[in-house]
Amino acid sequence: MFKVIIQKYVLKELQKIDKENQQFIFNKIKDLEAGDFTGDKALKGTHQGKFRKRAGNNKIVYLKENDILLITLIRIAHRKEIY
């Protein structure tokens, strides 16, 4: 079981997304909390060390710290705007 930290600016980005997609994103965040990383991809280049999880047309970018079982959400946005 992981602890998920959601920054204030990430919550603001999430509020801009419609309610249906918000629920889908919350389900994906629950998957992260449970340790389900299937389908997640490691990012490259300047974002190296971070991972992304797809939630419909949106992506969740997060940082996983193995030692303390902590996941920090970096960004939630439409896949066209994420990077």
Summarize the structure.
With 83 residues, the chain is of the alpha+beta class.
Descriptive overview:
With 83 residues, the protein is an alpha+beta fold. It is 29% helix and 35% strand. It contains two helices and five strands; from the N terminus they run βααββββ. A five-stranded mixed beta sheet has the order 1-5-4-3-2. A hairpin with a 4-residue loop joins β4 and β5. It is globular and about 35 Å long. It starts with a strand and ends in a 5-residue tail after the last strand.
Strand content: 25-35%
What structural class is derived from the secondary structure elements? Answer: alpha+beta
Counting DSSP H or I runs of 4 or more residues, the number of helices is 2
Radius of gyration: 12 Å
The helix fraction, in percent, is 25-40%
Mass-distribution shape = globular
**Which strand order do you get reading across the main beta sheet?**
1-5-4-3-2
What string gives the helices and strands in order?
Answer: EHHEEEE
Largest sheet: 5 strands, mixed
Attribute tags:
five-stranded mixed beta sheet; 83 residues; 2 helices; single chain; alpha+beta
What order do the helices and strands come in, and which of them pair?
Elements: E1 3-6, H1 8-15, H2 19-34, E2 41-42, E3 50-55, E4 58-65, E5 70-78
Parallel strand pairs: 1-5
Antiparallel strand pairs: 2-3, 3-4, 4-5
